[in-house]
Amino acid sequence: MNLLVTGAAGFIGSRYVRMLLAAGAPQITVLDKLTYAGTLDNLELDHPALEFVQGDIRDAELVDKLVAGADQLVHFAAESHVDRSILGADDFVLTNVVGTQTLLDAALRHGLESFVHVSTDEVYGSIAEGSAGEERLLRPSSPYSASKASSDLIALSYHHTHGLDVRVTRCSNNYGPHQFPEKVIPLFVTNLLDGGNVPLYGEGLNVRDWLHVDDHCRGVELVRTRGRAGEVYNIGGGTELTNKELTGLLLDACGADWDRVRQVEDRKGHDLRYSVDWSKARDELGYRPAHDFTTGLAETVAWYRENRAWWEPLKRRVERGHA
Ligand code: NAD
Ligand code: DAU
């Protein structure tokens, strides 16, 4: 079995590939453009079951060649940072929407067995109370989440219209090792480890559901191996926290005080809360998160403490405006 995985030089895709390789994986080909968010340091490049190809998911010729040699596809590649999408949406539409459609067309041409599209809980928009089930209306707020909602719906349309075996996952906020130091947890931890301050948006009352990246990866794998064509599966069940509560935990973990927190201007159009109902994945696939948040967060902070060589060059590139 040949599995094509897009975007696996990034945070979640690389953890997914590591998990499969550790379990005695099928042959895996990774297609990744190596944008600012992707690094080869995330991949075990010398593993005999892994092939890496640098390229853009919008490169129809390259995509056609790689899909022709694959049986299944798991699609992680995306522009993934909300703040960047507010500064400029071009790359979000091009990669997340057009790139996904390029992959879907190739999958259709070559009759792929299955196509797992990794979407996000942000497609539901802000959830005032309760949790969003898979049937809820999509109300994305940011250019990022709108581009993800577009690709999510285009992927499902290829199932409805053409009968392609498409499965969609919508997951909550991931944390863990190898996350690019622009997202709130690695940004705050690396700033604190560097002796700096942390920028808390607005009042810090926005709520996110934090799930360990390896739980997300197990959920994606369950969808690939046991899911059904044309179905959407929410993946959640982490720990809901306000950003203020999360900041307190990160300060404690880094041995820092509240004087290191700068309350800064809020994110434009900032969604107050995300929450997904993941009972379908639990009942149908046997999905259940395994990581306890307190332990997972402590291990994550320890990982950043011990792996400066991984994040320092990435952070310096951002500071110099090269990422
Ligand atoms: P990431 O930004 O860490 O990694 C994205 C990867 O995609 C990078 O390696 C990058 O080089 C690659 N890429 C970007 N544009 C590309 C293109 N045009 N062609 C080929 N490769 C390209 O992202 P992540 O946090 O690992 O997220 C992975 C996926 O999971 C995304 O689709 C994201 O929307 C989704 N997701 C993320 C989270 C989260 O909390 N991070 C939660 C739910 C869903
Ligand atoms: O919910 C899933 C989504 O989670 C994924 O689809 C996205 O790819 C991923 O980036 C993440 O989006 P968020 O916007 O929730 O994550 P981020 O880490 O950027 O922000 C988390 C919260 O922290 C959010 O309420 C904004 C706040 N924040 C963020 C940054 C970067 C701050 O207060 N200060 C900051 O500097």
UniProtKB/TrEMBL annotation:
Domain of life of the source: Bacteria
Cofactor requirements of the protein: NAD(+)
Q: Give the first-level EC class, as a single word.
A: lyase
* Domain NAD(P)-binding: residue ranges: 4-300
- The EC number(s) given in the record are 4.2.1.46
Q: Which reaction does it catalyse?
A: dTDP-alpha-D-glucose = dTDP-4-dehydro-6-deoxy-alpha-D-glucose + H2O
**One Pfam family named in its UniProt record:** GDP_Man_Dehyd
Report if keyword NAD is assigned. Answer: yes
Family annotation (SUPFAM superfamilies): NAD(P)-binding Rossmann-fold domains
Keyword set, alphabetical order: Lyase, NAD
Please report which protein family the annotation says this sequence is part of.
Belongs to the NAD(P)-dependent epimerase/dehydratase family. dTDP-glucose dehydratase subfamily.
- PANTHER family from the UniProt entry: DTDP-D-GLUCOSE 4,6-DEHYDRATASE-RELATED
Q: Which NCBIfam families is this protein grouped with?
A: dTDP_gluc_dehyt
What protein name applies here?
dTDP-glucose 4,6-dehydratase
Q: What does UniProt list as this organism's lineage?
A: Bacteria, Bacillati, Actinomycetota, Actinomycetes, Kitasatosporales
